[in-house]
Amino acid sequence: MTTQTHPVDHELVQAAAHVARTRCRGDNHTMAAAARARDGRIITAVNAYHFTGGPCAELVLIGAAAAQGAYELDTMVAVGDRDRGVVPPCGRCRQALLDYFPALKVIVGNNDHVRTVLIADLLPESYVWADHQLDAE
Q1: Residue 77 in contact with residue 105, Cβ under 8 Å?
Q2: How confident is the model over 61-82, as pLDDT tens digits?
Q3: 58 is catalytic
Q4: Are the C-beta atoms of residues 36 and 74 closer than 8 Å to each other?
Q5: 42, 12 Cβ separation under 8 angstroms
Q6: pTM of structure
Q7: How confident is the model at residue 124 (pLDDT cuts 50, 70, 90)?
Q8: Looking at residue 49, what DSSP letter applies?
Q9: Of 1, 16, 53, 131, which is least packed with CB atoms within 10 Å of its CB?
């Protein structure tokens, strides 16, 4: 499979890195995410770690975007605190992002080698929840 890349939204990476640097403190908040809404706005969020398995920054971002009326996201990136750089979404987040935003682009990679790919390319042969729902009649 060949993954098509798209232009990298460096402003988005910088926004996530800024939040990771200035808002992530201690063990409760270690990741920041930023997404560009279809209308151009940038929405940011941080994870909410808890020993029971709190939500990743990408999942918090889905809720934060909805709370701000941004229901269509174009591109997303996650960045680790302590200058860890871009971090790809975990499997749970990949599935949720695919279900919410099937055309979403995600910035992945490390250091100076970041690239933008479609969420579907990060989850090949994926299960699409909506495809398996019975129509209510």
Answers
A1: no
A2: 999 999 999 999 999 999 999 9
A3: yes
A4: yes
A5: yes
A6: 0.90
A7: confident
A8: -
A9: 1
> Kindly report the CA angle at 117 between 114 and 85, in degrees rounded to 5?
30
Q: Which two tokens stand for residue 49?
A: 């770690």
Place of tokens 């992530």: 24
Catalytic residue of the set 11, 58, 72, 125: 58
Predicted local distance difference test score (pLDDT) of residue 94: 96
The one-letter amino acid code at 96 reads A
Rounded to whole angstroms, the Cα distance separating 70 from 37 reads 6
Phi-psi region of 107 (alpha: psi -120 to 50; beta: other; left: phi over 0): beta
Tokens of 84: 């860890």
Distance in angstroms (rounded) separating the CA atoms of residues 76 and 64: 13
**Of 66, 60, 70, 16, nearest in space to 40 by CA:** 70
